[in-house]
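[Automated response] Your request has been received and processed.

Submitted sequence:
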Amino acid sequence: MMFFTKADKEDFEQVQKLYWNLIDKSQDEESFPGWKKGVYPSDDMIRQNIECGYLYVLKDDGIIRACAICNPYANEEYKQVPWKVNDGPVWIIHTLAVDYDSRGCGVGSELVRNIIRLAGENDIKALHLDVISHNKAAEALYRKLGFTYVSTQTIFYGVVGNKEFKMFEYTNIK
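Generated structure:
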């Protein structure tokens, strides 16, 4: 049975291992987002988001199968996007990752559905996120779950430089 929760300090090593394993095994795939071990997501980024209560995990028998960061912080370029919802509390989903060996089993969908539920419990008006333009797997996941494509935006991330990202929004939060 899958269990959704905030990550705690004891989860750091499992979260780091999930990201690093995913990077190692998927870096040659077309949908690979360009992450680099220890750079993005960095250990400091993981620790800081755990400490702030922004990193969420989906566990199966104590093993983390997926994780994501959800917080109100976005890149400056997000201000240029014609979001349907700009005002009110909005969460940004960052660095969503599914354990490489758990892909294709509905784990990513389960994680996102739990994030949507949690957003509703916290009176969040919308979820925003970006997907690097060649990541068709992530794009398909978000579209399947009801996210709407808003626009394509050039965003600078240190790990990949200036790249085109597809911007998605979810507003059907109850």
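Summary generated for your ticket: The radius of gyration is 15 Å. The beta strands are 2-6, 55-60, 63-71, 90-98, 126-132, 148-157, 161-170.
If you did not submit this request, please reply to this message.
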